[in-house]
Amino acid sequence: MYTETGSQWNVAELEGAAHRHLISPAEELAKLGTSGGRPLFTSADGIHVRDSHGRTLIDGPGGMWCTQVGYGSKPIADAIAAQALRICYNSPWYSISGPAAELARRISSFAPGDLNHVFFTTGGSSAVDSALRFVQFYNNVLGRPTKKKIICRIDGYHGSSHLTAACSGRAGNRPNFDLELDTVSFISAPNIYRHPQGKSEAAFLEFLVAEFEERIAALKPENVGAFLAEPILASGGVIIPPKGYHRRILETCRKHDILYISDEVVTGFGRCGHWFASEEVFDIVPDIITFAKGVTSGYVPLGGFVLSESVLAKISGENAKGSFYTNGYTYSGHPVSCAAALANIGVIEDQDLLAHVREITPYFQEQLAKLRELPLVGDVRGVGLLGCVECATDPTSEAATDFDRQVALRIDRQCYENGLVVRPIGSMCVLSPALIITRPQIDEMVSILRESIVRVQAEIRAEGKF
Ligand code: PMP
C-alpha cells in the first residue's frame, strides 16, 4: 500500500487506517474513528502541496510556520541521506556529534550579543521546556531556590510538554489538562487590535509595562526567575506588540535580575528576514533564545536554545559549585537533524533568502493589507512573511465571537476549494508561506484569500447573518 516512492497510495485504506488508529494533536476524541475532513497530502514541491485527490494547493501556513526553503530541497535530502549512512546516531552523553558541534558554532555566529552556547533538543516544546528548566537549575546553583516563577502572556504559545503547556495562555489548549502551576503567572497579551478601547498605542505600552512591574512587585523579585515571550505571538494570532515593548520589558527584567527568554521557534531562521528577530527587528538581546521549526525547514525534527555567555559564566568556571547539568535527551543534537539544519542554512545562504524576505516583505504586507477594505475583515497585520487576517462580524464586540470563528473556518474551507491551504486560528486566517515565495505567488495566494472571503461574506449576508 505505502510504496517507497509514495506514488501508489491506496488512499481509501490510508484514510481508514488514520481514522481507526491515528490520534492527531487536535482531535475530538468522542468522534475518534468517524471524523474525516483532514486532507491527506501525498507530495509537495516548493510552496505547493498535493493532496490525495490530485489537487495542487499553495501551502499558506508553510506546514506549521516551518517550511522556510520550501518542499523538495535536494541539498537537504542529500545531507540527511549522507549523514544517515555515515553515522546515523551517536550518544550525546559520552560522544560528540560532528554536525551538532558545527551547527552550534554556526548558530552562535549569528545569534545576537554574547549568546554563544547551544543546547539541542528535539523540537520547540523541548527547547522551551529545557530553557525553563535551565532557569530553575541556574537559580538553584546560585543559591536562590525561590527565584523560580515564570511570567508569560495570555495568548502566548510555547509548546505541549507539561511545563510549556502550563506557560501557554491560549484558553483552547487548556481544558481537561492539569496546567495550573503556581510557578506560572500570566500578564496581558500585547494585542493592539483587541486592547482596551480608547487607549493610544503609547498609553497601551505604558499599561503593559506597569502591569509587568506590578506583577513582579506582587510576586516579589526574589521569586521571579524568568520572563518568557514570543517576539510576535504566533499561534495566538500574529500579535505584534506596541513599539518599544520588548525593550521596556527587558529593561525591567534587568532591573530585577530576571532572565528574558525569547521564544523564536516561529520568528527565527528567516521568517522576519533575519536569522533571529529579537535584535534585528525588536532591538533586544535576550538571555536565552529558543528555536526549532525553520532550523531544518521542517525536514526533520530539531530544536534548541542558545544561551548568553555571561549568564553561563555565573554558574561555570570558578563559580561552578555543584553545577552538574543533566537534561538528557537521547536525541539531543541528533546528527541527522543537525546535518539537515546545516544544509538548510546553506540553502538559505546560497539563495540569499534573508535578503529576499526583507525585499519581498513590504509587497506581501501591502497586498494582504488591501483585504482590510472587505467588510468582514476587522484587522490585517504582520511582520516579515508572517501575516494574519482577522474576521470581525460585529465591530462593536471587544472579543472575537463564536460566529467570527465559524466564519474563519468557512473561509478556510473555501480557500481549500480554491487552491490555498490556510490555517484558521480562532477568528483568524494566518499565513506564513515558505520564504522562497515570489511576487506572482503572493498575488495568487492573496487573490484566492480575497475571493474566498468575498464568497463567504456574500453567503452569510444571504443567510441574514451579516
Ligand atoms: N514555541 C512556539 C512559539 C511555537 O509556535 C511552538 C509550536 N507551534 C512551540 C514553541 C512548540 O514547538 P513544537 O511543536 O515543535 O514542540
UniProtKB/TrEMBL annotation:
Keyword S-adenosyl-L-methionine annotated: no
Keywords: Aminotransferase, Pyridoxal phosphate, Transferase
Record PROSITE patterns: AA_TRANSFER_CLASS_3 (PS00600)
A GO term, aspect molecular function: transaminase activity
Co-factor requirement: pyridoxal 5'-phosphate
Keyword Endoplasmic reticulum attributed: no
SUPFAM superfamilies with a match to the protein in the record: PLP-dependent transferases (SSF53383)
Membrane-spanning segments: none
Pfam family, one: Aminotran_3
Gene3D superfamilies reported in the protein's UniProt record: Aspartate Aminotransferase, domain 1, Type I PLP-dependent aspartate aminotransferase-like (Major domain)
Family: Belongs to the class-III pyridoxal-phosphate-dependent aminotransferase family.
Protein name per the record: Aminotransferase
Organism of provenance: Mesorhizobium shangrilense
Organismal lineage: Bacteria, Pseudomonadati, Pseudomonadota, Alphaproteobacteria, Hyphomicrobiales
